[in-house]
What we know:
- The structure holds two protein chains of two kinds.
- Chain A is α/β, with parallel strands linked by helices.
- Chain A folds into four domains: 1-85 and 196-249, Rossmann fold (3-Layer(aba) Sandwich); 89-167, no CATH class; 262-340 and 427-512, 3-Layer(aba) Sandwich (Rossmann fold), CATH 3.40.50; 356-421, no CATH class.
- Chain A is built from 18 helices and 23 strands.
- In chain A, strand 19 (429-433), helix 15 (441-456) and strand 20 form a beta-alpha-beta unit.
- In chain A, helix 13 crosses helix 14 (411-424) and helix 14 (411-424) runs parallel beside helix 15 (441-456).
- The longest helix of chain A is centred in the middle third of the chain and has 16 residues, at 181-196.
- By secondary structure, chain B is mostly helical.
- Chain B has a domain at 69-287.
- In chain B, helix 1 runs antiparallel to helix 13 and helix 5 (110-139) runs antiparallel to helix 10.
- Chain A binds chain B through residues 22-23, 62-63, 78-79, 311-313, 332-334, 336-337, 343, 345, 350-357, 361, 365-366, 368-369, 374, 377-379, 405, 407-408, and chain B through 4, 6-8, 215-221, 223-224, 227-228, 230-236, 238, 347-348.
Amino acid sequence: MGPKDPARDETVLRLSGITKRFGALVANDEISFALAKGEVVALLGENGAGKTTLMNILFGHYTADEGTVEVFGAPLPPGQPGAALAAGVGMVHQHFTLADNMTVLENIQLGTEPLWRLGLGRSAARRRVARLAQDFGLAVDPDARVGTLSVGERQRVEILKALYREARILILDEPTAVLTPQEAEALFETLRKMVAQGLSVIFISHKLHEVMAISSRVLVLRHGRLVGEVATRDTDRHALATLMVGAEIAAPEPTQARPGAVLMTLDRVETPPRGNRPGLRGVDLALRAGQILGLAGVSGNGQGALADLISGLEGPIAGRLRVGEAEVTRWSPRAALAAGVGRIPEDRHKTGTIADFTLTENAVLESYARPPTANHGWMNWRAAREAAQEIIAKYDVRCPGPETRIRLLSGGNMQKLILGRVLEAAPRIILANQPVRGLDIGAVTYVQEQLIAARNAGAAVLLISEDLDEILTLSDVIRVISDGRLSPEFARGEKTAAELGQWMAGQGFDHAA
Amino acid sequence: MRLEPIAAPSHARTLGLPALAIAATVLVAALLAALAGANPLQTFGLIVKGAVGSKFATLETLNRATPLIFTGLAVAVAFRAKLWNIGAEAQLYAGALVTVLIGTQMGLPGPLALPIMALAAVLAGALTLLGPVLLKTRLGVDEVVTTLLLNFIMALFISYLLEGPLKDPMGMGWPKSPALPRDARLPRIVEGLRLHWGFALALICAAGVWLIQTRTTLGYEIRAVGQNPQAARFAGIPVGRVLVKTALISGGLAALAGFSEVAGLKGNLTSDLSPGFGYTGIIVAMLALLHPLGVVVSALFVAGIFVGADSMSRAAEVPTYIADILLAAALLFMVLAILLTRFRVVRG
């Protein structure tokens, strides 16, 4: 099955001249495209390019200011969530919308059939689900509670649910963000089976290699505009990246690391589990000066627990934590800061900054109690403003001024302020938890270069990321986290992405233990 | 219809909407006055005249504003940290109770009496709020419920004391405490004018709270904890300790209302010392958008409406309830105006 020519095939979905404005911002600017039966179209674009807005319009969550949507030749009434579903469009969101306490089968039936009928017709539903699962390679136990399933299995349930509702068009929003490379490959296999049977897929992503692997056509969005539409076989990753960003980009190239003394040690550390996410289970870890340790892993495998431990939010319930040679007894965010730990948190909006505080107020969030920002309990706002201005200038934070509320900044500029706040404190140990997630490529490169520079200056960097490419590019040594356990340390280049993927899926730990 | 956040509200919104809220309040009041059969314009005229029309009226308004400034500040300080102190009423009575106890029982020498009474009152109010806050920070108990219920516990406790151990033997059977001796009364600011030093103390407190909020690390911590406790905790701000400090300040301020009413105005403790000053403090603080200096203005406004409406209802045949309705309408419109400065209503 090769890519098809959409002009000759049956068009299943057509968007014409979709425009959506939010105040002065044009989120979608006259976007038109058609989806043909039996093809996978990739929608490629950076964060904020307008992909999500476009899908929200398709699903009736927003009403477009201009333009129309046609599904199977019939116009879709605007602003009615449910109209798209009824017309045969299904969506698998980045964050799943399943009820944890119900079984797979109940979840699939939920919303499809009236509540009082859920118990009835179950055997018929079970047969249908089993057939769909077999046809499309979506193996999952229909009687398992969703809460006990892995992330990959939940995604399969979401897809099954869409298929059960007789979706002929399936939209997947960043579906591989939570998957190991092997699970992603299995997902692609499913998608190939679906298009072979005449379904159509819109695959939303910002990962170029996946777009190259699965799609037959690529639509590139930039700043709300459709800037490119190319057949996948006629393009390559580099050309797509240039289209997506609008400029040539170069990934940072780390120089040879010169690792020094061990600055932080975890010795058989345990932390309590949180909900259905594991805590740390007997973790040994050593962070060395002048080295970036990359922690790979699928989301929700204990990264949060490790980050909370190192940033001081939580102490170990067993095992030891040492900074340098000294064992830590009283551990708190303030103690971590005092011990020279710089923290770039995972969520820059909720944890890293206070949205309604100004840049000045956010810049001194971790240092407000010390001179020169404060003296005997009195704030010195002039000193605070100078500190903010220094960060703004040195780290190229684009903003109207230090008295601007930080909520008005883009994610990239917000992250640069956090980065400046952390690095200006000259930390010996740096925790960077998903430091570039959601940033545009220019900001990604900048943040990564700064982390490399800090490592070259002798800091020990712990880089936590779900993006294996990022880990492979930046790390001097790599470890994999799975279900709260850490793999052995692998040197740069020792393991391929596929081999790391096996560790991410939890293979190999039993032999190592 | 749904709400969509506005990133940077324009001046037209931030200034125009509150103005519109005031206009709407006036309109509602005019309708009510007309409904009662009075001429709205004349009614307003009488309210204004009753509030500030004479030296006596103005002083009465200032006197009435004094406890409202204290309770308004108490609420404003707490709400800034998103600590929902609904219990200013209980803290007020705690302050009043301790004021009377020390003033009548200890026989302190003149110049020492008032400062010690005030300090003890602050302590009593602070401790009254400390319990609910520790329950909140330690066990996650909702402080709205605990502070609200404490109001009733305190009211009944005061009632019991006034009928029992604290009852004035010379009180002709009325449930009231013995009166404070002369040394333990707040003097008037100007001899002959019915305005006591409690009002000046309230203004000093407002300035003090403003200084704390804008110039000290504690004020910074309080705002950080109120706006985003998660980020505050991550940044190393001791969230629980900041909430406790906030509670001590808030409870202390509310208690000063009780101190000032007893030592400055009434001279003894009765169970109707406060006609809901603690609750009205919430309105005062909200109308002031939690700004401590704004609290002074809005307390004067609210007090003026109460005093003016009292005098108006004597002159015209409009019931004095109009003051309550006016304030309720002002609060609702103001809250709506605040909401609409930060969100716009969109269709679909």
